[in-house]
Amino acid sequence: MAANDHNMQKALDESIAKWARNYSQTTRDALKKVVGAGIKSGQSYDQIANVLNKISEIHANDSAKTMAKTIWDAAGNMVNKAVWQQNGVQTLEWYTGPTPCAECTALDGKVVNIGDSFFEDEYGQGNTPPRHENCNCFTRPGPIDATLQ
């Protein structure tokens, strides 16, 4: 298994554990399989959501598109962080997406050491976005001479 595949698998495991923790193990396993295959094959959120809609527990409780987007974004941000860390990046900076919520606006521009958290909440440590479902935030390597906040 290539390093990037390992990073993605780990990121999927962590993001599903965080964002789908109230689902049964069977559903979490299906999420990992469907979202992982979708990301690997370059599918869109909508394409992945169409498959997720067939999983009854998700269809009954959540928007499949919201679930697909949130897990996809969480995994992508985790993989980026792992790759940057492996390549010597020392800090991360938080960026908001379009129309951010108040919680995310407060994080915009925040710089932390790559091993530190941006926030803590009921889902655990906030080492990377998303901050909440449907979050459009992301991180990038922080400035080399950053003053940590």
- Distance, first to last CA: 37 Å
Q: How many β-strand runs?
A: 5
Beta-strand share of residues? 5-15%
Shape: globular
Cα-based radius of gyration, to the nearest Å: 15 Å
Low-confidence stretches: none
Helix content: 40-55%
Which properties best describe this structure?
single chain; 149 residues; alpha+beta; three-stranded antiparallel beta sheet; two-stranded antiparallel ribbon; 5 strands; globular
Note down, in words, how this protein is organized.
This protein is α+β, with helices and mostly antiparallel strands and about 150 residues long. It folds into 2 domains: about 5-80; about 90-140, no CATH class. The chain is built from 6 helices and 5 strands. The protein has helices at about 5-20, 25-40, 45-50, 55-60, 65-85, 100-105; strands at about 90-95, 110-115, 120, 125, 140. Strand 3 (about 120) and strand 4 (about 125) form a beta hairpin. The longest helix is centred in the middle third of the chain and has 23 residues, at about 65-85. The protein starts with a helix and ends in an 8-residue tail after the last strand.
